[in-house]
Specification:
The protein is α/β, with parallel strands linked by helices. The chain is built from eleven helices and 14 strands. Strand 1, helix 1 and strand 2 form a beta-alpha-beta unit. The longest helix is centred in the first third of the chain and has 22 residues, at about 75-100. It is globular and about 55 Å long. The termini are far apart.
Length: about 300
């Protein structure tokens, strides 16, 4: 039974989602929220993880920390495996010891990105990249260790605290009037402000399992970029290019899924509210950015 006095541990607090999880929990009146990052805990150190969690004894762990630099991951597979697979394993095992519920944030990259239909939560996994494979292994470790878990697969993440595609586009618009943007990768953006609300709603239930938790609607990167520039009133011409064309322009990239559509059937069946449409999320986010800059 989760109450306002329950202890909640949030990893990756300096990242986009960790930041919003702590903000949302505090706004909802949770009194014992501890946000940590790698300075406070090295999640790849098994002894340190177990000592920390055994000592703090959280009721819930929202594990958001991850290696998310997809291209760099190809150069350092062992390091990425430690962060994205072994780290969650150690946390899950410690959660079992103290009977804590665990959230593990996963990704559309666990799938191969083939076809056009939305992936279901139980579809076969076959990640194309080191990032996708290690996040998939992290999922498996969590499922092996725990019954009280929420695995949330998300994609195209953006939040106020950290780097993301929207901030990159706005930065580029300062010095570019034309940009090449990929048009054949289709998926859904995820606003961490909205996702943190869903996580807090889930936390007080026992509807454990795997969920796809992106904002509603599908788009491609080029269309997404056009909408960013339109709403931000930036005069930038977007040239849609295929992934293959883009790879020739910017070589040495990890393989990315062309189809990142994910079905929300599991959310619906559990009675959880879907996240708002991505266009609505983008508009609210741009207003949030603008308000932050004017402070």
């Amino acid at each position: 039974m989760i109450t306002k006095d329950s202890k909640i541990l949030v990893t990756g607090v300096k990242g986009q989602l960790g930041f919003d999880c702590v903000r949302e929990l505090k706004e909802r009146g949770y009194k014992n929220v501890l946000g940590i990052d790698k300075e406070e805990l090295d999640i790849t150190d098994e002894k340190a993880v177990k000592k920390f969690i055994h000592s703090y004894r959280p009721d819930v762990v929202m594990h958001n920390a991850a290696w998310t630099a997809v291209d760099k991951a190809e150069e350092m597979p062992d390091a990425v495996y430690k962060v994205n697979a072994l780290g969650p394993k150690y946390i899950a095992e410690a959660c079992k010891d103290v009977d804590a519920t665990m959230f593990y944030i996963s990704t559309d990259y666990v799938f191969d990105g083939k076809g056009t239909r939305p992936f279901e939560v139980d579809d076969p996994k076959d990640g194309l990249s080191v990032y996708g494979k290690t996040k998939s292994q992290g999922e498996d470790f969590v499922r092996e260790a725990l019954t009280k878990f929420f695995i949330l697969r998300i994609s195209w993440v953006f939040g106020i605290n950290g780097h993301n595609f929207i901030k990159t586009m706005l930065k580029l618009s300062e010095n570019h009037r034309e940009l090449n943007v990929v048009c054949d990768q289709v998926g859904s953006p995820t606003y961490t402000y909205d996702l943190s609300k869903l996580m807090c709603d889930m936390m007080i239930t026992d509807k454990y399992g795997i969920y796809h938790a992106t904002n509603e609607g599908f788009t491609d990167w080029a269309t997404f970029a056009k909408e960013i520039f339109k709403l931000a009133d930036k005069d930038v011409l977007v040239h849609p290019v295929t992934t293959e064309e883009y790879k020739k322009l910017v070589p040495n990239q990890a393989d990315r899924p062309l189809n990142s559509r994910m079905s929300k059937k599991s959310l619906d069946e559990a009675g959880f509210k879907r996240l708002p449409p991505w266009q609505d999320a983008l508009l609210r986010y741009l207003k949030q950015l603008e308000a932050q800059e004017s402070l």
